[in-house]
Structure formats: structure tokens, C-alpha cells
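TA notes. Do not distribute before section.
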Amino acid sequence: MTTPALNPDSWLQKPAHLAWLAGEGMRLLQFARASRVDQGFAALAANGQLQAQACAELIHTTRMTHCFALAHIQGVPGHAELVDHGVAALQGALRDAEYGGWFANATGKGEKTAYLHAFVALAASSAAVADRPAAPALLDDAIAVLETHFWSEEEGALRESLSRDWKQEEAYRGANSNMHGTEAFLALADATGDTVWLQRALRIAERLIHEHAAARGHVVVEHFDCDWKALPDYNDDNRADPFRPYGSTPGHSFEWARLLLHLEAALQHAGLAAPGWLLQDACGLFASASRDAWQADGAPGLVYTLDWASRPVVRARLHWVHAEASAAAAALLRRTGEQVYEDWYRRIWEFSASHLIDLQSGSWHHELDSDNQPASSIWPGKPDLYHAYQAVLLPRLPLTPSLATALTAV
């Protein structure tokens, strides 16, 4: 793979822009530190304080541990201890000592989901790359659970969720969990040196993107039954679900577009065959999402969901969608050098800076209404560091290796 030289006028070449990204990253990290609780990390309110009855949750503990590991690798003081705190929580209160795997929160209830276990693997791999002493054991544990309970060699994808004792399985397959599985597998390949994770990531991408999304005009199909039959009407009665919404989710198209480029680069770096459809489908996903979701209701910004006729369903603007769109634009710009991606990269960052970045209370507004005013119908508070922090890191790094490993070379 030969990547074109970037135009000297590209924002990715501008020292001031790169410095701005770095400064925004430091601001995000400072806000997120308050999420620490005794048993891990918990959700923060919009003002940066712990929410009422804050409880350590697996989603926040894994994502914070991952991000704090990235900060430590970069040489930002004060984050090694936070990484160790997260690793200890994942080996303690959040781990199921009886059956293995991890609880969704420190109350020890609920099923075991591939989505959350993928983030355990991501956090463990980043902590291991950061050379934290307890991380290798956590990484081994995470890999064992993924391979024993979630990875289906027959399907070439992840099972969705199982009961606490692993005996009952949900009759559902999801693109979201497999997308984050792909992200985790790229990190596992770098952390372990085992290219089997790249082959597994390719199988997931082939099924979900090259088979299903490409056939729908590069619109990601999110929901399936256990035989991988698409369920286009899934959650029609709960259209704004934060994890399994009805219809298509343009933010995931952007996220998938970027991951396909990371996978292509990783395969080629490993000396493995990288099919041409990885780039073609990445371009198609970005084109369809940007065309259909931007100003879909006449106002600036990307809407949360669309129906199957590309009409807006949930018109809220979520911060993570814009973070992923800017990161995907940067990846496509780096891969192709085409001006259209430069234009989108600037457009999305201009929107984020004007509407999402909260310079008064900190972090980013996680949700805006259709008038681009702060809202909280889907995402109350500001619990998420992961999407925004990665968005300020990814444009400064090559397409491979994955984030933690790439940062060790910077």
C-alpha cells in the first residue's frame, strides 16, 4: 500500500492544528479523572461531578483504563496510577470470580455481553503496551474469555450475550459488538504479535460490511437473528435506544470506515493479503453516511439515526458520532489524499468546536437536540472520554499499528 503525500495545506500538516488537538486531549483527560470510584470508574454528570449513586461500571472502567493508558504512554504524568486502578478493578470487583468474565457493573448482576468484553480486551491490551505490571495477567484472562465464550469460528464473528453462567445465549447477533470486537482484535494483534486476530477481524468485516452493508448501498445493518438474518424492524418501538437503535446509525458507518482502513494497513504490514474491498467499502460507508446524515433535517450536524429510506429518525446530534466522523475523514485523507476528506475533516471539527466542545463546564456536550442545544434524552451527563479522546489522537498517527502501540513510537 502506497499512501499519497498530504497537501501542505492540509490541517493534518499544520503544527497549530496538531497542537490544538493535543491541547484538547489534555483538557479532556483532566475532566475525566474525576470518574474514579473505589471499584473502578463511574459516570460523570454534565458539571464533571460524579452522578448521584455513582457505581463502577464496566463500560466506563474499561474505556477510562484504555484512555489513561494512552495518556501514560504519551508521557502525561499522573495516569499510571489510574491505569493500575482500572486494571485492579477489572481483576477485582468487576470480575466474576465464580464463572469468569466480567459484570456490567459492580453490583454483580446482568448478562455477559460481547460488547463489554471487547472493551475489557482493549483496556487490557493498552495497559499491557503501557507496561503496567498487572496488565499481562488481565490480557491473558480477557483473551481466554473471548475465545472460550464469544468467538464463533463457525460464524466468523462474535456471539452477542450469554447468561452469567454461560449456559443461555441470546438469540441475536449485533454489528455494534462485532465492530468493537474488530477494534479490540486490531489492538490484540499488536499487543500479542499474533496475526490470528487480524484474520478474525477480516472475517467479521467481510460478513458485516462486504456482505451486508455493501448490498444496502453501504449502509450498516445493525441487527440480526442468531442465523445472521437481518432484522430491519428491530427496536421499532424503542427507536432512540443508546446501544441498539432502530434503523441505521451513521456514526457506526464512520467508525467502520476507519476500522477497515486500520485493518487494511495492519494486514499489509503483517505481510498478509488485504482485499481491495477494504478501501472501496470504507469510501462507500463514508460517502453514504456523510451524504444522508449531515443536515438531514436542515440544521447543521449529523443526526443519530436514519430509517431505511435515509430519512432522519432520531434527530439528536451525539458527540461520539462527530468524533468518529472526524477520525474517519482523517483516516481516509491519510489513505487517499483526496480533497473531499479534507473538506469533511474541517467541516466536522468546525461543528464540534462550535457546538459540542464545552469550554465552560469541561469535556464535550454528549448530546444536542435538533436545534443544536445541549440535551440529555439519550446520553445524560458526560460519562465518555473514549470517543473524543481518540478523535484528537487518531489524526496525528499512522493507520497502523493501533493506538497504544503507535503512541510508543511517537
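Switch to the second chain here.
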Amino acid sequence: MVKAYMLVQTQVGASAQVTRTLRGLAGVVSAEDVAGPYDVIAVVQAPTVADLGRGVIARVLEVPDITRTTTCTVVEL
């Protein structure tokens, strides 16, 4: 399983709704509102990197009121 953290910025006042929407998407393990430069941090996972990108991340990017994301893929060192 490939796991990643998605750091999400939203329109002002939209973080709670974005978090609720993300929690309902397949492949999103968790989503939390946070304080700081990002509004939401989501943990996402999929069987392969391709599935993560084409499936999970693509669906996240379709969520209304998301203005920017940064995806940090977990690696094993």
C-alpha cells in the first residue's frame, strides 16, 4: 500500500466542509482541520502509486473550494 499526506489549502471559511467531503472519498484514510499554513491534512492510500495519483488524488482535486495541495508520499528509508 502506498500512503501519502496531502496538505490542503482552501477558500476562506471552507475548511470544515472540505474536511467532511474528503472523509467520504474512497482512499482517504483520515482528514483533519489544522491551524497553520494549511487548512486540512489528509492521509490517503492506494495499492500503487498510479492508483494513488489517478484515483485518490484526482478525486481530491475535484473537491470544491480547494485552492492548493501539496502531496508528501511516505517512503521507507
